[in-house]
Design a protein that fits this description.
alpha/beta, 4-stranded parallel β-sheet, globular
């Protein structure tokens, strides 16, 4: 829980770091790909949508295992907390000497340092928990700052989120569907993953406008539809009509994700689970190619 609580300060440090690493980060109008695995993939999705939406250049996001080797980019950004994830190292190794690459990691003294052209180490955001919280949001804070976003309001919102009690209707819910639009689609996917990883809760994630195209059928009493960011017009009333709970964003979407993290920890403890060490998961996936 201490790692979750430290996020506002980590975001401020990450925003300050962005100015120091500007030379190795994607430049305006560069064609960029961003790769990662698990949580890092969802951060990649958020950054890609945000950067392209701001007119900074075409930006694609891929799970590292699905990176299209035949496609040409001006720069590739890799996100890997551990610096040891096999699929990420494979991509960077194959690209070395052909396309400039930069890795965002919590530990630059790991194998990623030998395969990426540049490394940005967010060591202040490293974690003991298997489940990512502050590294992922700090990496996204740096990426948001790199495209001109101001993070002071987001950090202040996170402090408010950390201070307020968890709503009872969320603590008692049996199912959650997280929704996003634009750059918050990645955050919605990450919110769903946090709840599944830490608490074993039934969760789904969709672009908000897609919710009406099928997923709304699961909504009903005891089930929550939670929008991170802007909500489509009319959606709160449609969810209310099902008997489900609508949760709209009161805070910066990244701060809203912090609330999801807190909820995941609370639900895990209610279920007798260890939110830092989920079943079947390790801190890094290292594969034996042999």
């Amino acid at each position: 829980m201490s790692e979750i609580l430290s996020q506002p300060d980590c975001w401020r440090r990450a925003a300050g770091l962005a100015a120091q690493v500007e030379e190795v980060m994607p430049g305006r109008n560069e064609r960029v790909a961003v790769v990662g695995c698990g949580t890092s993939w969802f951060v990649a999705q958020s950054y890609a949508a945000l950067r392209e939406g701001l007119g900074r250049g075409q930006t694609d996001a891929f799970a590292a295992s699905e990176f299209p080797r035949g496609r040409r980019y001006d720069r590739v950004v890799a996100i890997t907390r551990s610096g040891t994830t096999t699929e990420v190292l494979d991509v960077l190794g194959e690209l070395r000497g052909t396309i400039p690459t930069v890795a965002l990691t919590a530990d630059g003294d790991t194998p990623v340092g030998s395969v990426a052209d540049a490394v940005v180490a967010l060591d202040f955001a490293d974690e003991r928990s298997v489940v990512q919280t502050r590294f992922a949001t700090s990496a996204l804070a740096l990426l948001r700052a790199s495209v001109g976003a101001e993070l002071a309001a987001a950090a202040a919102d996170a402090e408010r989120v950390l201070a307020e009690p968890l709503p009872p209707e969320l603590l008692e819910a049996e199912q959650f569907t997280f929704l996003g639009r634009g750059w918050t689609c990645g955050l919605a996917a990450e919110a769903a993953l946090k709840m599944r990883e830490a608490a074993g809760v039934w969760t789904e994630a969709y672009p908000a406008m897609e919710y009406r195209h099928g997923p709304i059928s699961v909504t009903g009493p005891g089930r929550v539809a939670w929008v991170l960011g802007e909500s489509p017009a009319g959606l709160p009333d449609e969810i209310a009509a099902t008997g489900g709970v609508f949760r709209g964003s009161r805070w910066d979407p990244m701060a809203e994700l912090v609330l999801v993290q807190r909820l995941a920890v609370a639900l895990a403890r209610r279920r007798g689970l260890d939110p830092d060490h989920p079943r079947h998961l390790t801190r890094s996936v290292v594969l034996d190619h042999a």
